[in-house]
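Field log, afternoon session.

UNIT: design team B
ACTIVITY: writing a sequence onto a fixed backbone
BACKBONE:
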């Protein structure tokens, strides 16, 4: 029960950020695409009692093609191969990896 309460509280904390991200997505998309999305969602909502698979339109169809492990390996390899006039102590790699970890946790 405590885990459910923690998840609920975390969801409440993230709702503002999620709504802002959703608004940015809608603002960036062409208005005709947003209209198509809204129509598709409304149709799925109406149909979901008879056909639960109608809600599949809500799933992301984006395929990244790379695992987090592969992305991390690429960043570390690129950091090791880069030749720079300015000495880099490796902190840029650590910073990027930390950012990826934070995004992965969200």
């Amino acid at each position: 029960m405590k885990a459910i309460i923690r998840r609920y509280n975390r969801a409440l904390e993230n709702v503002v950020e999620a709504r802002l991200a959703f608004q940015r997505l809608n603002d960036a998309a062409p208005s005709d695409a947003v209209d198509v999305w809204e129509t598709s969602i409304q149709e799925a909502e109406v149909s979901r009692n008879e056909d639960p698979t109608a809600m599949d339109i809500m799933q992301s169809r984006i395929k990244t093609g790379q695992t987090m492990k592969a992305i991390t390996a690429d960043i570390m390899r690129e950091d090791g191969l880069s030749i720079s006039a300015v000495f880099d102590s490796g902190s840029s790699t650590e910073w990027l990896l930390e950012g990826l970890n934070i995004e992965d946790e969200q």
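LOG NOTE: The chain is about 70% helix and 0% strand.
NEXT ACTIVITY: expression trials, pending approval
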